[in-house]
Amino acid sequence: MPVAHQHVKIAPSILSADFAELGAEVDRVIGEADWLHVDVMDGHFVPNLTIGPPVVAAIRKHCDAFLDCHLMMTNPGDYLEAFARSGASNCSFHVEVGDTTELIAECRKLGLGVGLAVNPETPVEACEPFLAAIDLLLVMSVHPGFGGQSFMPVAVDKIAWAANIARRDGLEFEIEVDGGIDVDTAPITAAAGARIFVAGSAIFGSADPLGAARDIRIAAQSAFADEEIP
Ligand code: DX5
Ligand code: ZN
């Protein structure tokens, strides 16, 4: 029976795509991609360097997908305008960079969606002051910086905590989970309250990326199989 809770978003992370074939890689998954997840790393906040606004602009020229930009940066505020100009749909910055009030306001001014990300070692309660002002909470289930790491179960309680707060306070932010998501971890995090599933290696590391994305969607939706329409 179809249920109201079943809607999940799959966000393939292009970090695990072949950058020399980026357009073709995007085309391979777009049929199952509600969003495309773009991992931006500055070599400071995380010990890796990846993608910046020119690549976002190139993807934007290639397709009209929702571009979910995950800014693993110490100074995201210096680049929000560049990401907006490049065609980003939303920007998520990390709660670990400090008071994010101004960053949230700047995103709104630029017409960007707003996400707040939280690392595995950071208490999720640090996000509480900002939950009413954001569109999504990005719960990291690996240490950010690299694809292909194992899922950290500490994320599950954080997701459940955030889902409870949203229910309690009538807040509308969505919960996104990022790191080690596959057909085994998607249902666990979905049951806790996640609705947006980022997956890199489980999708682009597969011989059939579209099928892999579809399988993750089906696995996430299976968490709601027993629920009734309210
Ligand atoms: C990690 C990134 C993730 C990464 C996920 O720093 O934020 O988005 O691409 O990759 P997998 O799905 O391979 O863990
Ligand atoms: Zn990410």
Largest sheet: 8 strands, parallel
CATH class: Alpha Beta
Beta-strand portion reads 15-25%
Number of domains: 1
Structural class designation: alpha/beta
- The topology string of helices and strands comes to EHEHEHEHEEHEHEHH
CATH superfamily membership: Aldolase class I
Structure report:
- The chain is an alpha/beta fold.
- It has one domain (9-224): Alpha-Beta Barrel (TIM Barrel).
- 33% of the residues lie in helices and 19% in strands.
- It has helices at residues 22-29, 53-62, 80-86, 101-110, 154-169, 185-192, 201-204, 209-222; strands spanning 9-12, 35-41, 66-72, 90-94, 113-118, 136-140, 174-178, 196-199.
- It has an eight-stranded parallel β-sheet.
- Strand 3 (66-72), helix 3 (80-86) and strand 4 (90-94) form a beta-alpha-beta unit.
- Helix 2 packs parallel to helix 3 and helix 6 crosses helix 8 (209-222).
- D-xylitol-5-phosphate binds next to strand 2, strand 8 and helix 7.
Which key features would you list for this structure?
disordered N terminus; eight-stranded parallel beta sheet; 8 strands; single chain; 8 helices; 230 residues; binds zinc ion; alpha/beta; globular; binds D-xylitol-5-phosphate; TIM Barrel; 33% helix
